[in-house]
Structure prediction request, 183 residues.
Amino acid sequence: MPNDVQLSKFMSLVLRHAPEQAELVLDENGWADFDALCKSLHTKFGASTADVLRIVEENPKKRFALEGNRIRAVQGHSIDVDLGLQPTAPPDVLFHGTKDEFLASILREGLTRQSRQHVHLSKDVETALIVTRRRKGKDVILQVDSAAMASDGAMFFLSDNGVWLTNHVPPRYLRRINERELP
Ligand code: HQG
Prediction:
């Protein structure tokens, strides 16, 4: 059987991007039937309902919400779902971890959503570094002037697990953090 991290990654895949890979259907708010998910994970990987519950509860980033007999990912979707998040005033600055190879394009177009529903921003440099270190390459941390964006009318949302979301960060609100300032 795959380990918890592998199972959790598969759950993120099906609950954010490709529900058909577990024969699931997401409703317009991103919810899937929990029993159906467990059944599919049992058939595919031999996982029990207790395994799935443990992964939901112990997930270090609290990526999943379980409500009664339904489950959803709390952020990160490429599928068009409405999570019902309310616009929320952001802190004055937010951060985005990325790779050196994307920098020229980001400074030209700003941060764009790529395949996801939102641009994802972190509350501090440490979190931004964790995000970018998932990928190979040289880390770059960008500071976002979220106060200026908000006063210019941009909307921000806070996912249930603390990720800040917005639609687009134009380049004028971005500043690269000097490598010497990084932890
Ligand atoms: C880059 C984790 C070129 C962007 C975290 C990033 C996060 C551009 C990549 C979540 C660009 C998109 C998301 C532009 C942005 N030109 N590249 N104009 N604008 N990019 O995975 O933020 O662990 O879609 O810098 O918590 O890396 O999965 O987004 O490198 O919330 O739960 O395009 O992943 O959550 O990559 O990470 P992603 P991300 P989980």
